[in-house]
Input
Amino acid sequence: MEDKKVITLTSDFGYADSYVAQIKGVIHSINPTSTIIDVTHEISKFNIQTGAFMLASAAPYFPKGTVHVAVVDPGVGTKRRALAIKTKQGYFVGPDNGLLILAAERQGITGIYELTNPKYMLPEVSGTFHGRDVFAPAAAYIEKGVNPARFGPKVEEPVRPEFVQVKHEKDSIIGRILHVDSFGNIITNLRKTDVPKETLNIKIQDTEFKLKLKKTYGETKPKDTMALIGSHGFLEIAINRGNAAEKFNAKMGTEITITPN
Amino acid sequence: MEDKKVITLTSDFGYADSYVAQIKGVIHSINPTSTIIDVTHEISKFNIQTGAFMLASAAPYFPKGTVHVAVVDPGVGTKRRALAIKTKQGYFVGPDNGLLILAAERQGITGIYELTNPKYMLPEVSGTFHGRDVFAPAAAYIEKGVNPARFGPKVEEPVRPEFVQVKHEKDSIIGRILHVDSFGNIITNLRKTDVPKETLNIKIQDTEFKLKLKKTYGETKPKDTMALIGSHGFLEIAINRGNAAEKFNAKMGTEITITPN
Amino acid sequence: MEDKKVITLTSDFGYADSYVAQIKGVIHSINPTSTIIDVTHEISKFNIQTGAFMLASAAPYFPKGTVHVAVVDPGVGTKRRALAIKTKQGYFVGPDNGLLILAAERQGITGIYELTNPKYMLPEVSGTFHGRDVFAPAAAYIEKGVNPARFGPKVEEPVRPEFVQVKHEKDSIIGRILHVDSFGNIITNLRKTDVPKETLNIKIQDTEFKLKLKKTYGETKPKDTMALIGSHGFLEIAINRGNAAEKFNAKMGTEITITPN
Output
């Protein structure tokens, strides 16, 4: 018996309509024993970056082989590609707009395929709801053991929006702020491998400051600014019982520059 | 082994209370291997018509044999009947107030039974929460293979509210507007079989217009009005990048008259 | 084969973030065949009493052996203990702040254990998210058959906040109001065994009144005040088509005194 796989769903569909249920119905019609877990369906409408962050924050906790479906898809009905990405840990299915790539790259991508083979879609594909008609069947077939290479041609250059890009310059590393949480903590797109081990010189907007990378929130005094690799695997700037985003005037998309000391 | 069945839930209970969990607990107590999928629990309180539409929009995507439970039940505690409906595709369980009938009729009804046999209810049935005490056990027993004919007497005339009725008159067909979605698209209660194949003369409120039935949204220019059979199987009037409900002054319940050309 | 167990989740995490999904991912990583049911994640932030009531209202409907995880945890990161409670009906996992005890005591507690053994936690335990790092693994291991006695030392005196306490005095029984529902019905922390069988003298704030315990809502006339043991197993004071909380000036935490007649 193949290992039991899980399918996760992330979208901006909300909980008031039946869209999410339609997706789950399609998955169960193809694979009646599926286990489907919602990441969230309350991504703000068309906000690809927040969708990407939520997916990247949840994916590391799922078992090997999990198929992650994400649908924040302002380009549905246009020529934007539909993708299935295979990684060392699992699979990602959704639009080629950057939604999947942040989480997928952290798992080590081993292949990206365009979803073009109608055999793995619903018989009628609407122009507006690929979540149900294209992505859900693809995920259910992967869960059943179909190799995503059968879905369509290999994709070499998926869309990589600014929020997944990290620039390694001669003296510094430039990343972006991915997300500001409800406590005002700043989550950047920089990963452990992007960050020199010891003291960091950090620049956000016009403020420059120097910090040692901590291991936990507990290691600082109240009101101290600290830097740590958060549970999602990204560099985070926080103020113990304070609001870092406010202090540094940081928003989603703001640049952050790290200079090794 | 019998085919794996799915149970879906639709209600106006919201997500903040434990009502939905109580229903799921009862189902799992009777049938520990149930797979339960939420359609939505955010139907506005006591809005039977929206509940009926949401259920009808989701049901076609579920596998054969699925048991759909729906609870929008302003009449609970009165003499309104509780029903189990068997169709060619699956089962529907809920109050006899029109909530189930729209979705069930589309699947071809083969039998309707009143839930009167206390053997298939919880030992204590409250006057206020039949979702948990009556409908959940019935659904779990159907999933286990119990024939709904054992629940109680046959029902010949279920409640059919105005929103499920279509009048076929000599020269025209009169339906109702079921739902206006967040884009202002108008979804009617007319089905493919109600609609002549070619050009349609449509009247909504005081506006009359002529349209050809399209297959997809893509076939029209921006601001064009169009008619198509939507993914839910109902005739839909939409304006490409516009708000049809506003233009035609259409609301839930408004009449729509179709005259074949 | 061991009986199929269900895991339930109750929290104040909301549905917009990926926290709940992270918990589910951890559970499925340890036990891929888990069935996880949400009670609710919309407990108002840090409101232990409402969380305790929601859990206590849902738990009785779940099958024997169910593992209930609850996370309303303002003390996370402090020295508050993490608990697994074994009862005659199932298991409860969460912080030692009163959240679990109301529901657990109704099932008959047979053992309480502190979660201290790192073998049954994630390899890295954050200071802020024990729901994922400590409680989720404990629940998954219980579902797999691990005896909670292996998690850590026995706890003899769990935290019992005022809202779970009932004082039996010479002539009277003093309880607290647990919850006021959206109809203004008053749910107390008094159970069937706390309440004398026949007529009750009840005092809430400055109002005293005498009532016979009813079996159902149906037994009274509109506007009559009534007392009954509700479906959650607690004494409830309600007014047929009226608002009892308003009439008696009752809020969450208000004392209620019962004097047997």
Remarks:
- The helical segments of chain B are 19-30, 48-58, 101-107, 130-143, 244-247.
- The radius of gyration of chain B is 20 Å.
